[in-house]
User: What shape does this take?
Amino acid sequence: MPDGMAVQVTIYLNESDQWHHRPLPGEILSYLRQENVYAATALHAVAGFLGRQQVKTSHLVDAGGKLPVVIIFVDTDEHVGRVLPKLKEMAAHRLIVRENVVLEQGNLD
Assistant: This one.
């Protein structure tokens, strides 16, 4: 039986994205930690694309900072609603997906 409901947010970036001249993925994770979000991770992809662009892979010499980075975090609906406006500002040009999820194990305490 599931333990409860939560919200999961996925943010699609690339490794060259910046916020105030610093790498955006790290800045987002720092912000989420500062805001006491329950769990977050950044995944650095070996291949992918954003915005219907050409597929970039770690094998291309010219990938040049365009490899995908995905940030996923989970928290309560209330907490996500509180941090999302800042994230939309930080990643204004990127895709952000919010979905309701079922916690199959654990809780957000």
The radius of gyration is 15 Å. The first strand starts at residue 4 and ends at 14.
